Amino acid sequence: MRDHLRTPPRTGTESRSEVWTGRATNRAQWVFAVAGAACLALGVQLAVSSNWASGVVALLMSVVGCVAAGLLMLFGTLAFVNVAVRIDGDALEVRCGHMGLPRRRILLTHVVGAEFVPRVTPRQWGGWGYRWRPEQGTAVVVRRGEGLVLRLGDGRTFTITVDDAEAGVRFIRERLHLPAGGAAAGT
After folding, report:
1. CB under 8 Å, gap of 24 or more: what pairs does 119-125 form?
2. Is 160 exposed, middle or buried (0-12, 13-18, 19+ CB in 10 A)?
3. pLDDT tens for each residue of 71-106
4. What is the arithmetic mean of pLDDT over 145-156?
5. Domain boundaries along the sequence of the chain
6. 186 pLDDT exceeds 80?
7. What is the share, in percent, of the chain residues with pLDDT greater than 90?
8. Residue 145, beta-bridge partner list
9. 162 neighbors 23 (Cβ within 8 angstroms)
10. Which of 1.20.1070, 2.30.29, 2.120.10, 3.40.50 is the CATH number of 4-24+85-176?
């Protein structure tokens, strides 16, 4: 999906402001979600149809292991099948998955720079999902491809893989009156 600029309806006391929205989706994550559902089903099948008379400890460990692995895979992947980014005049908000969790909101007053990155890969960040690496900062990586990087006033960075990230970077720079290089004057 591509980015969308829209102007919200005007209420009595609000001024008109534009909003940029972007999304990114990773359809390959559905394969992992199906594998998680299969592990969960196997755990339930073992619990229901097995003979619990012999080898109770081994069977119990198998059931618990399958159910736990299935739930982790299922919910872990569904949380990062897609990401939605919304930028208005005040903040950038990132929502992951179908439930919008985890969620992160960064006030634009904390942003000192924004950069377009043509290629972000899960390998750079140690996998898909909500990631943190001391030498790189924080990222939400749902797929390989373009992304936007925010440079925050405290020296940290926040990277998001999102479609048409370049338009999102331009939108942020316009709101913050940043030069084309993305850093505020004097930083």
Report:
1. 119/144, 119/145, 119/146, 120/144, 120/145, 120/146, 120/147, 120/159, 120/161, 125/159
2. buried
3. 888 887 777 788 999 999 899 999 988 777 889 999
4. 94
5. 4-24+85-176, 29-78
6. no
7. 47
8. 120
9. yes
10. 2.30.29
Per-residue b or e along 35-70, where b marks 16 or more CB atoms closer than 10 Å to that residue's CB: ebeebbebbeebbeeeeeeeeeeebeebbeebbebb
Percent of the chain scoring above 70 in pLDDT: 87
Q: Around Cβ 153, how many Cβ atoms within 10 Å? A: 13
Using alpha carbons, select from 89, 93, 92 the residue that is nearest to residue 102.
93
Q: Which two tokens stand for residue 54?
A: 């012999």
CA distances from 172 to 16, 62, 111, 162 (A): 17, 50, 9, 14
The 3-state DSSP class for residue 73 equals helix
Which residues fall within 8 angstroms of residue 184, CB to CB, at 6 or more apart?
112, 113, 176, 178
Amino acid sitting at position 107: L
Q: How far apart are CA 159 and CA 150, in angstroms?
A: 6
Structure tokens at 139: 């990222």
